[in-house]
Amino acid sequence: MNEYLRHLSKIEFVITNACTGRCKHCSEGNHTSCGERIDPPTAAEAVKKIAGVYDIRTVMTFGGEPLLYPDAVCAIMTAAKELNIPKRQVITNGYFSKNADKIREVAERLVACGVNDLLLSVDAFHQETIPLDVVKQFAAEAKKCGIPIRLQPAWLTSATDDNPYNRKTREILDSFADLGIRENGGNIIFPEGNARKYLAEYFTDELPENPYMEDPTDVKCVSFSPNGDVLDGNVYERDIIEIIKDYVP
């Protein structure tokens, strides 16, 4: 076992950088390389191999918008379900189609493949370009299928700061009350990518420490990029266990 991954308990996949939103708080900026997406069989096999060595407690998929490619999400989650990995999580903005049948189909596929924690990104930033009525339609279908779902807003400066974006976010969250969907704590926007470009007035010149940055000497989460990059290797070129064994920060 690699000493730098001795506490590894989570696997995450950026399914794609392609996105249906154009959010001004997005750390990815203009979403370059949007044509790349993770290969479903390769991703599923990586989950199985890593879980065969480490006690994995969480598998997460996000993006971009991961549900643009539900086959990849479902392949990963099916593998995690078969391995009895406790938390099988998807983070989505809920907008991948306007077609009601497609929305229903994807919700049904998610419950069938074992997703048990669905985080729905809704806030002032997402809803500048993403239609709320379509997102609510997906949320209703997911809830009907029995998928545990929570709202995951992005807060500017802090969750309690009284700025125009946070006020709008609270209005949007309140509009989900009739669906009975509870709010998760959300996340605080880090000044990176679009956030640094469009929201600079809300941040100081001195960048804070990124709270989402992994400690390279104590890796708790292995993260796969859409092009297969992971740690210091690429899962399309080398076996994931060999990549892990050879990892040095």
Keywords for this entry:
249 residues; alpha/beta; two-stranded parallel sheet; 7 helices
Shape: globular
Strand residue content: 5-15%
Estimate the helix proportion, in percent.
25-40%
Radius of gyration: 18 Å
Question: Which spans have pLDDT < 50 for at least 5 consecutive residues?
Answer: none
Average of the residue pLDDT scores: 94
Kindly state the number of beta strands: 11
Q: Which H/E pattern describes the elements?
A: EHEHEHEHEEHEEHEEEH
Structural class: alpha/beta
Write the layout of secondary structure elements.
Layout (H helix, E strand, L loop, with lengths): L9 E5 L25 H12 L6 E5 L7 H13 L4 E6 L7 H13 L4 E4 L11 H14 L3 E3 L2 E2 L8 H11 L7 E2 L3 E2 L5 H5 L22 E4 L4 E2 L2 E2 L5 H7 L3
Parallel strand pairs: 1-2, 1-9, 2-3, 3-4, 4-5, 5-7, 6-8
Antiparallel strand pairs: 10-11
What does this structure look like?
- The chain is an alpha/beta fold and 249 residues long.
- 30% of the residues lie in helices and 15% in strands.
- It contains 7 helices and 11 strands.
- It has helices at 40-51, 70-82, 100-112, 132-145, 164-174, 194-198, 240-246; strands at residues 10-14, 58-62, 87-92, 117-120, 149-151, 154-155, 182-183, 187-188, 221-224, 229-230, 233-234.
- The strands form 3 sheets. A 7-stranded parallel beta sheet has the order 7-5-4-3-2-1-9. A two-stranded parallel ribbon has the order 6-8. Strands 10-11 form a two-stranded antiparallel sheet.
- α3 (100-112) links the parallel β3 and β4.
- α1 runs parallel beside α2 (70-82), α2 (70-82) packs parallel to α3 (100-112) and α3 runs parallel beside α4 (132-145).
- It is globular and about 50 Å long.
- The protein starts with 9 loop residues before the first strand and ends with a helix.
